[in-house]
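Hey L., structure's done. Input below.
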Amino acid sequence: MRTGLYIDGAWRAASDGAAIEVFDPASEEVITSVASASIEDGLAAVDAAHRALPAWAATAPRRRAEILRKAFELMTARAEDLAKLMSQENGKALKDARSEAAYAAEFFRWYSEEAVRNISEISTNPGGTNRILVLQQPVGVSILVTPWNFPAAMATRKIGPALAAGLYDNPEARFGDAAHGSRHSGSVGGGGCASGRGQCHTVASLVQGGGRHHQRSARA
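Output:
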């Protein structure tokens, strides 16, 4: 299982080497440690997003749909492993974790089908003198913040529509309790698309952190 940050198509450690220990809430034993992003890491993810935005926005809806469908298939194939990991680090009953793993994957399948239905509108203005054309277009970098208690489902629920619409989704950031946050399984949920390779491997970045820079960021 990967434990680093995923930025611009590559796994890496935090720029300052910081890491967060992930605990099993039942035994309070350390399961593993994951990279804890610095402000510089977050900025690197946003910079990567800006570089990749034009190409991803120009990607054909059918291609985006195929990538999301592949992400669904990858997550479905690994659903049991993901459920066990969520149960271990988050404290969910295994039955609930299995339900979330399936639920999370479904967002990728749903939005793979919606990617090709990016429908624009033509209407007449109130005065009847002109036609109004509404086009659906990407608006730019999408920064998605997900909670610790639904680490897989809340990641895919946000990543799916952003990628389907042609937005460049970067970074997918999680900030939760450092002892009981679900940073590991959240990375699996968010990384389903990244694992599909192709164009998508540079689209979704995973940048987790423990809140160590919140005060500094507020002052900045």
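The chain has one domain: 15-219. Residues 92 and 184 are 14 Å apart (CA to CA).

-- N.
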